[in-house]
Design brief:
The complex is a heterodimer of chains A (about 400) and B (about 60).
Chain A lengths: L3 E7 L3 H12 L4 E4 L14 E3 L13 E4 L2 E5 L5 E4 L1 H4 L4 E4 L1 H14 L3 E3 L2 E9 L2 E9 L2 E12 L7 H4 L11 E10 L7 E5 L9 E6 L5 E8 L9 H12 L4 E11 L8 E2 L2 E3 L15 H21 L4 H12 L2 H16 L4 H11 L9 H11 L2 H5 L1 H7 L1
Parallel strand pairs in A: 1-2, 1-11, 2-8, 5-13, 11-18
Antiparallel strand pairs in A: 3-7, 4-7, 5-6, 9-10, 10-11, 12-15, 12-16, 13-14, 14-15, 17-18
Helix pairs in contact in A: 1-3, 1-6, 6-7, 9-10
Chain B lengths: L5 E5 L9 H5 L5 E4 L2 E4 L9 H5 L5 E5 L2
Antiparallel strand pairs in B: 1-4, 2-3
Classes of the chains: A alpha/beta (about 400), B alpha+beta (about 60).
């Protein structure tokens, strides 16, 4: 490890890997450090992504566990809402194999010239005159000072680096989705279909998912709000009950746990000499919990903006703000804002109201499906939506 | 008046080392180091938020002996 790089990246997930590739492609030196001994493992993810991932990287079939042609939403009363490809839009995509996918993204960065160190972790930030200038790195029993013009914090939901730089990254209790997932086999499922189960009894303020991993195999998981979690009512308790009822013959071959933030993004995702990306910036989708594509997009953008700012000799917060402004103004940023509002509505809905919504969506003409049409029709059948919730009115404008 | 000292216990055999607790800790007292979880007892205020949200129930605020 050198003692100086143009850019130092904390974390070797999809966000860090995309950032690393963008920095070296711009002709600058870069180092990714990953605290785990392996890239991509252990998995802490349901692995689902929309088809738009292909806008960020050329998809390799060996990263894909399953191609998803459709989804179904199961209401609390058991009614099924089928989302076929024409209407599901972005929700149709792939279930990845993250152990392979994450590793290959880091390989791409490494092959382009980026340094990579595993089982190496940042233990504090180097800050001079209020500017982030690097990190103290613990690796193989040694403690090193690594200096950089820009540090990119891509250290995930358990992020500490931004906090060490004075940024409050605390996720509110009500806005952490606490999750457990099993990789299960011996399941009678349609390999091209992902399923979502809703309801207070199934997953309070969250959902159960079955994401196909190919023939007879799936990620079966649950996320519930931290607010609803307590002894005897933890996500594992709900998931075990769901499996006993719906998938009694399934065999569990892997246990995966994790937290997903469903809060607003950090108020500001840059500081002097620092850019924060992906889950560390609280950029996972507040409704779906999906974060892979958002991390990849912001990682790439962070790498590009860091390279530009280094070339122009100004890595101040003001200069790096270009990154913050760009993602907030992107399709992703606008989507996060909208979905946060929609989430705020949905977590308050009682099961009867969810049933009523699914029932009315099932009556719709799917040929003319779009979001505004959906909301307008929903309100027609469920006028209480407007009375109860002013936010929907704004979404109609 | 007797002051009761509390402390956060990490049940290592239950913990899944996911880091969900780290994200909700208001004091920054928890850290996922490689593949294990640590708590800094000097920083921890024993608020119990991490214990509440843990997916597996691996954290517990206990009265210290």
């Amino acid at each position: 490890m050198q003692s100086n790089y143009n850019v130092l990246i904390i974390g070797g997930g999809p966000g860090g890997a995309m950032a690393g590739k963008a920095v070296v492609d711009a002709g600058l030196s870069c180092c990714i450090i990953e605290k785990r001994p392996a890239i991509g493992a252990p998995v802490r993810c349901a692995e689902g992504v929309g088809h738009e991932i292909s806008e960020l990287v050329d998809l390799d079939p060996k990263w894909i566990s399953s191609k998803i042609n459709g989804a179904q939403l199961v209401a609390p009363d058991g009614q099924i809402l089928e989302l076929n490809p024409e209407m599901a839009g972005n929700e149709v995509g792939y279930v990845l194999d993250r152990k392979i996918f994450d590793r290959e993204l880091v390989w791409k960065a490494a092959n382009a010239g980026c340094d990579v160190f595993v089982k190496s972790r940042a233990s504090s930030a180097i800050i001079k005159n209020g500017k982030v200038c690097g990190a103290i790195i613990e690796t193989g029993g040694k403690t090193l000072e690594v200096h950089a013009d820009v540090v990119i914090a891509a250290d995930g939901v358990e992020s500490k680096f931004a906090r060490w730089c004075g940024i409050d990254t605390t996720v509110p209790v009500a806005e952490i989705e606490t999750c457990v997932q099993y990789l299960m086999t011996n399941l009678d499922i349609d390999p091209g279909l992902n399923s979502f189960y809703l309801g207070r009894e199934v997953a309070p303020e969250g959902y159960v998912w079955i994401f196909s991993k190919g023939e007879r195999t799936a990620n079966v998981g649950i996320g519930i709000s931290g607010k609803m979690c307590r002894d005897g009512k933890r996500p594992k308790d709900y998931l075990d009950a769901f499996i006993a009822e719906h998938l009694p013959n399934g065999k569990i071959i892997e246990l995966i746990v994790g937290g997903v933030s469903a809060c607003k993004p950090l108020e500001c995702t840059v500081a002097d000499g620092l850019i924060i990306v992906g889950d560390a910036a609280r950029l996972s989708d507040p409704i779906t919990g999906g974060g892979i594509i958002n991390a990849m997009y912001t990682g790439k953008l962070a790498g590009e903006v860091a390279a530009e700012c280094i070339a122009s000799g100004d890595c101040s917060k003001k200069a790096l703000m270009k990154y913050d402004v760009a993602w907030r103004d992107s399709k992703m940023g606008r989507g996060l804002k909208r979905n946060y509002q929609v989430k705020e509505i949905f977590i308050k809905l009682k099961d009867e109201k969810l049933n009523s919504i699914v029932n009315s969506v099932n009556k719709l003409d799917m040929e003319i499906f779009d979001t505004k049409y959906l909301i307008r029709e929903l309100v027609k059948y469920n006028p209480w939506l407007l009375k109860d919730i002013g936010t929907l009115r704004r979404l109609l404008d | 008046m007797i002051k009761v000292f509390k402390m956060l216990i990490i049940k290592r055999e239950v913990c899944g080392y996911c880091g969900a607790c780290v994200s909700v800790c208001p004091e920054g007292a928890l850290e996922l180091v490689d593949a294990y979880l640590t708590v800094d007892p000097e920083t921890c205020i024993e608020c119990g938020i991490c214990s509440k949200i843990c997916p597996l129930g691996a954290l517990e605020v206990k009265n210290a002996e």
